[in-house]
Design brief:
The complex is a heterodimer of chains A (307) and B (476).
Chain A (H helix, E strand, L loop, with lengths): L6 H26 L13 H53 L6 H22 L2 E2 L2 E2 L11 E3 L7 E3 L8 E3 L5 E3 L4 H5 L13 H14 L2 H54 L3 H24 L11
Antiparallel strand pairs in A: 1-2, 3-4, 5-6
Helix pairs in contact in A: 1-7, 2-3, 2-5, 2-6, 3-5, 5-6
Chain B lengths: L2 H27 L9 E2 L2 E3 L12 E3 L3 E2 L3 H28 L9 H18 L4 H60 L4 H17 L2 E5 L5 E5 L3 E5 L2 E2 L3 E5 L12 E5 L13 H11 L1 H6 L7 H18 L2 E3 L5 E2 L4 E2 L8 H4 L1 E2 L21 H8 L15 H41 L3 H36 L1
Antiparallel strand pairs in B: 1-4, 2-3, 5-6, 6-7, 7-8, 9-10, 11-12, 13-14
Chain lengths: 307, 476
């Protein structure tokens, strides 16, 4: 509707409304801490804000993922370290068998039991799990990779032949392999799928057979294989060590980048509280001054002076 | 010239000054009346040749209005512009609320949840719970886009309703001006009070649509809408109408209808209307709302986002494997939408009925095969704009931000225009007030002057009366 205020009053009201609106905006920004709450607050910054929020979310997710992978790698490393010790114990037993140190059936039985136990332990280590997943199960992490099988030449039965192709994401978006299969680690084979010299299961099975046969030559052959598999296991340990270092570095880098992004996001989006407080004081003083000036404004006309 | 002539002259003067006082009173009474223009009673000297006849004196001339049609038109023009921007600001503010800059709600939050779920799926592709979470997150993403589309549709329906009610208001105010015209034709005009009502109605009308108003020869008002279409002329009211036109056969099937403003004789006058609330509504309807939600000829950026996102995810999944085999089992699409209705893609986006947790493909066939490659590729869509990812070189989230930027920019510009227009309205009213407004100081001065003149004329009557008494006493 047309409003018939006198012009001075209309100017005054519009100015007060403008001041009040600015005051409301600054107060809202101070209380929320956000200078950009909606697109019209700073249209040209919206895409940058969204981009940085997405990048931050991505890094958060990356750190979470690396944390989970890191737990698997930790478990794998621990198991591999134990596997190396198992092979070292087997090498000691093998040395005894290879040097005709088995001088009695009791000693033979003891050694045999020890080697059986070591094979059992190695199979158990191949079944290491982390959060319900077989860490050496490769892409088929819900299936156990091996079980004992005394009838098998390697002493074990292969249950899962899935490769390990799964990748993790680094802080910069690059992808890397984080695991190896039980077959690659414990059941190394040649191109014709026959156990090769690095095969830890086969080495233990060979030693068991040598002890049962009381054959020191066989025992020497098993010993060589055990030493090869020992080196192979250490190489696998190095691989996992490398993965762990990459994960640790990536997590740290992700944190650094997140800090930078958070700072950039704050510059784009957050209220400069000090500046806003000064602006608030200025606007409040302006509003008070305008209201006081208006009350002092004379409302008299000539009529007030006519007799 | 005799004493009685002088008496006659003095009484005529008294009548003239009385008329002036009455006009001053009317001005003072209407100092705050909407549409009122200051009235003046000019005094005209009567012929005075005492030797030959004319007695002289003064009489009140015809009442004059100080109304300036140019100043009135200026105020109406500024009001129309202000209303246009104010309406656009109002509608744009509602649209802007769909774009959460903090990414804690709405489409950005749902998309982030989707990408998080697929990142978790990539960590554990064999996990049933990870697959179920990924599917649920996809459903949430589709739902968020559905809701955004529904909100835009609701805003569009509100705008359409407002267009209809605004046209009704225009016709109603046109009716008031026609009633004024009928009074003028009955009474011959010159009624300042009626004129005030008519021009107040004209100002109300200017808030709704740009109008041009001028006097016709018979002192009635003629009202043109958009400079071309006669709304009111004399006793005639030519009511405007609204209709909504469905898309042509060659245009987007199922697109929202387009509003048209029609004259009383059925002509489409939409393009001639350029200011007022009606323009604000029409411009947001055909401008930002169409840009976002689509219309007869464009898909709309929200629909483009939904389509781009869904198509890319489906492309990755159908190019991936559920099982390497042999036989290899290929992945299946995750999303579906009504492709026959381009402007309804966001509204109809949903999970493909055949999609289950078991049919989510995580494996990239390569070579080399990567067991979680497809899941990683989908998770990477959060920030990737490379190759087939994203839209126009932006990731999907950035594209949503870009849409928000355009809405925000428009809102900011229109809001600034509204502030400027508000000041211009005040200035134009100030200018009009200076020309035709009532100033109490001026009226007090005129009243004082009229009072002195009245007293002086009354004194002459008194003196003439004494002179007559003297003459009579001589005769007795």
């Amino acid at each position: 509707m047309a409003v018939q205020l006198d012009p001075v009053a209309e100017y005054f009201l519009k100015s007060i409304q403008r001041l009040q609106s600015q005051l409301d905006t600054v107060q809202r920004r101070v209380s929320s801490g956000l200078a950009v709450e909606k697109p019209s607050d700073a249209p040209r910054q919206i895409v940058d804000i969204v981009r940085r929020e997405a990048q931050t979310a991505e890094l958060t997710q990356t750190r979470f993922g690396l944390g989970r992978v890191g737990a698997e790698v930790d478990a794998a490393e621990a198991s591999l370290q134990q596997a190396v010790r198992v092979i070292e114990q087997a090498i000691v037993a093998g040395s005894q068998a290879a040097t005709n140190a088995i001088d009695s059936p009791e000693r033979q039985a003891t050694l045999q039991a020890e080697v059986n136990g070591l094979l059992d332990e190695l199979v158990r280590l191949s079944l290491t799990q982390s959060e319900g997943r077989y860490v050496f199960g490769g892409d088929g992490d819900q299936q156990p990779p091996y079980e004992l099988d005394s009838g098998s030449p390697t002493g074990v039965n292969r249950l899962n032949t899935a490769p390990s192709t799964r990748l993790a994401v680094d802080y910069d978006g690059s992808r890397f392999l984080t695991g190896r299969t039980a077959q690659q680690i414990f059941d190394s084979r040649d191109g014709s799928d026959n156990p090769d010299q690095n095969n830890a299961f086969a080495a233990l099975a060979d030693l068991r057979a040598a002890i049962a046969a009381g054959d020191s030559n066989l025992a020497r052959g098993a010993l060589e294989r055990l030493e090869s598999s020992h080196d192979h296991l250490n190489q696998q340990l190095s691989f996992y060590g490398g993965v762990q270092r990459r994960i640790d570095n990536s997590v740290q880098q992700a944190r650094n980048v997140e800090v930078r992004l958070t700072s950039e996001l704050s510059e784009l989006r957050d209220t400069d509280i000090a500046k806003a407080a000064v602006e608030l004081a200025r606007l409040e003083a302006g509003l008070q001054a305008a209201l006081q000036a208006r009350t002092a404004f004379t409302t008299q006309s000539l009529f007030d002076f006519l007799r | 010239m005799n004493l009685f002539g002088t008496l006659n002259t003095a009484s005529g003067a008294l009548r003239a000054f009385q008329q002036k006082v009455a006009t001053t009173q009317a001005n003072i009474n209407n100092v705050s009346t909407e549409g009122y223009a200051r009235q003046e009673t000019p005094l005209q000297a009567l012929p005075f040749q005492p030797e030959s006849g004319p007695q002289g004196g003064v009489e009140a001339g015809a009442q004059r209005s100080s109304r300036d049609l140019t100043a009135e038109a200026n105020v109406r023009g500024q009001l129309a512009a202000l209303s246009n921007y104010a309406q656009q600001t109002q509608t744009l503010s509602r649209i802007e609320s769909l774009f959460d800059v903090s990414a804690e709600s709405g489409v950005p939050a749902a998309l982030n949840g989707f990408f998080d779920a697929f990142a978790s799926f990539a960590l554990a592709p064999n996990s049933v719970s990870a697959r179920e979470s990924a599917l649920n997150a996809a459903d949430s993403a589709a739902l968020a886009l559905n809701r955004a589309a529904a909100s835009l549709a609701e805003i569009r329906r509100t705008v359409d309703t407002q267009i209809e009610s605004t046209v009704e208001e225009i016709n109603e105010i046109g009716g008031r001006i026609r009633a004024y015209n009928e009074s003028i034709l009955r009474t011959g005009g010159g009624d300042a009070g009626l004129e005030a009502q008519a021009f107040a109605a004209a100002e109300d009308l200017a808030e709704l649509v740009d109008v041009q108003i001028f006097y016709q020869d018979d002192r009635t008002l003629k009202v043109l809408v958009g400079g071309q279409t006669t709304l009111v002329s004399g006793r005639e009211l030519n009511e405007l109408k609204v209709d909504f036109v469905a898309p042509d056969p060659g245009q987007n099937l199922g697109a929202p209808s387009t509003p048209r403003i029609l004259s009383a004789d059925g002509r489409n006058i939409t393009s001639t209307i350029s200011q007022g609330r009606l323009t604000g509504l029409l411009e947001t309807r055909s401008g930002v709302l169409a840009d976002l939600a689509g219309d007869a000829v464009q898909t709309g950026s929200l629909n483009e986002l939904a389509q781009g996102f869904a198509d890319r995810v489906n492309q990755i999944l159908t190019g991936a494997l559920i099982e390497e085999g042999p036989p290899a089992v290929a992945g299946t699409p995750l999303f579906t939408y009504d492709a026959t209705r381009p402007t309804a893609i966001a509204a109809t986006l949903a999970i493909d009925p055949a999609a289950t947790p078991a049919t989510l493909a995580a494996m990239n066939p390569g070579p080399p095969v990567v067991a979680n490659g497809a899941a990683l590729d989908i998770a990477a869509l959060r920030i990737s704009a490379a190759g087939a990812d994203g839209i126009d070189g932006l990731s999907y989230l950035e594209y949503f931000g870009k849409i928000g930027e355009l809405v925000g920019q428009q809102t900011q510009e229109v809001s600034a225009s509204e502030s400027r227009a508000s000041l211009l309205v005040t200035r134009s009213r100030d200018l009009r007030h200076q020309i035709s407004g009532v100033s109490l100081d001026r009226e007090a001065t005129e009243l004082l002057q009229a009072q002195r003149s009245y007293e002086a004329s009354a004194k002459i009557v008194q003196v003439v009366d004494e002179l007559v008494q003297s003459v009579l006493s001589i005769v007795r």
